[in-house]
C-alpha cells in the first residue's frame, strides 16, 4: 500500500519502510526526523434499509466499476461517529433519511485494508434526490437483486446473510472475513 511521499512533520522526502524500535510491524518512518507515519485500515459504513420486503441498493456512478450495485455505504470521515457516517452515506448516495436500528455486520477485508460496518436502518423519508456518486437507486425484492452486478464481495455476502436471516425471522451480529473464508455468526 503506497503511503505519503513527504513527512507531515518536517516535509522531508526521506521516508523509508522499516520496523521502529519496540514496534512489531514495519512502518513508514521519516529518516530525517524519525516521525512514524501509521497506515491504518479504512472504515466503510453503511446501511441495509428494507421497505415492504425490498432492499435499497445504489448503482455506482464512480470508478471503480461504474454501473454495478451496492448498499448505500462509503468511507467514514474524521470527526464522525460510525452511525453518523452511515446515515450521511445513505443520505448522499440514496437521498434517504434513515434511522439506525442496530449494528448488523462487521466484515474485514485485510487484502485491501478495509473494514465494513453495516447497520440495520429504517427509512424515515425519501427525498427523491441522490448524489453524484449514484447513477440510480432502487428497492429490490430479493429475487430481483442483480447479484452478479454487486461490486463488492463483502457487500454481497452481508446482504445474502441478512436476507436469509430476515426470511428465518432471526437477526444477530454477522462477523466475517474474506481473508480465510470463515464466517462467524453470533446470535
UniProtKB/TrEMBL annotation:
Nudix hydrolase domain mapped to chain residues: 40-162
InterPro entries: Nudix_hydrolase (IPR020476), NUDIX_hydrolase-like_dom_sf (IPR015797), NUDIX_hydrolase_CS (IPR020084), NUDIX_hydrolase_dom (IPR000086), Nudix_N (IPR029401)
Gene3D superfamilies per the UniProt record, alphabetical: 2.20.70.10, Nucleoside Triphosphate Pyrophosphohydrolase
Keywords: Hydrolase, Magnesium
Needed co-factor(s): Mg(2+)
GO MF annotations, alphabetized: hydrolase activity
ATP-binding is among the record's keywords: no
Superkingdom assignment: Bacteria
Keyword Magnesium: yes
Family according to the record: Belongs to the Nudix hydrolase family.
Entry protein name: NUDIX hydrolase
Organism annotation: Phytopseudomonas dryadis
